[in-house]
């Protein structure tokens, strides 16, 4: 990775935050950075971490006065078995299994290390570092050393208890959320903090939603500590298949799903944000928000399902800016995104929003080794394409009816 320590292209320290759409308050941001992860060979996203962190660095964001860069503390076996099975953890931590040779072994199959989750060189080091990145970020928030913690290498929302799934080998979102549930010390004022997990990835957050799905608790009138809300696409045959990805009037009101149709664009996100996301947040009133910022719904992603963009009302930046304006602490993680230059643009822009210093979308990509990859625009923006938004008023009314009803039920439980 190219971290230019002498980069002069710093964030403007005299930037006036009053009219930037954020709350204007100084915001302490922790940024988790691992040179090992940045150079990782994660098969689904080769070089994406390097590209993202190089762009963030070359834009001078890591030199902003309110940001502090931390190395992740690698997760221990004990940390990992807080969610994963001991057998799975022992398998992925054994360097012998960080080889393509086990693809054909029955043990590799058993742990899901095949197809889209092949074993790769360094897997045994990758797993503790990715989990450690999100756990370190969570720990910083628990210690009140920051208001926002960012771990772009985290966000692996498909990894299951006992097997890898959907390019995800370790369930860092679940592990970090479990950590946030626990008070940092016996004297902590937050005895039983509430955590809202909000997932903006194109795909349903199956592993996280299932992990915290406790219908007997919410349905029984007792408020659980965790609310999950996933905004995603789902359709027959579209990964991941899960009964929780489509809301029903009888669903658990603390496991919310907002499925969107192809072409979902900023106006659609703006609408559901106003009618569903904000009311859900208000009803639950969490002390922590974990926001998974998968960017495979942006225009230009190889999936080509949504037509979301970075800027403007209802854009990804606007939505994350709204989250930043909420009370409480925020843990910000990455996720999917298979157009690597666009993922880098998005995460750089979101980093600037977390800092309450949003970069203009026409910011030129600075001269750095990865510069040619940002052709032809060579700017920060990821604009929408020409795809038609299939989310009609009729369809959205239907979703709002069901999910709005669930949010109403959640409010009733929370008010008891
Ligand atoms: Zn995804």
From TrEMBL:
Region of interest (Disordered), residue spans: 1-26
InterPro entries: HDAC_I/II, HDACs, His_deacetylse_dom, His_deacetylse_dom_sf, Ureohydrolase_dom_sf
Keyword Transcription regulation included in the entry's annotation: yes
Any GO MF annotation of the entry: metal ion binding
EC identifiers of the protein: 3.5.1.98
The keyword Cytoplasm appears for this protein: yes
Domain Histone deacetylase: 44-352
GO cellular component: chromosome; cytoplasm; nucleus
Cofactor: a divalent metal cation
Record's subcellular location: Chromosome; Cytoplasm; Nucleus
Bias kind Acidic residues: ranges: 1-22
Gene Ontology biological-process entries: heterochromatin formation
Organism domain of life: Eukaryota
Keywords per UniProt: Chromatin regulator, Chromosome, Cytoplasm, Hydrolase, Metal-binding, Nucleus, Repressor, Transcription, Transcription regulation
Family the UniProt entry places it in: Belongs to the histone deacetylase family. HD type 1 subfamily.
Name this polypeptide is given: Histone deacetylase 8
Organism of derivation: Pterulicium gracile
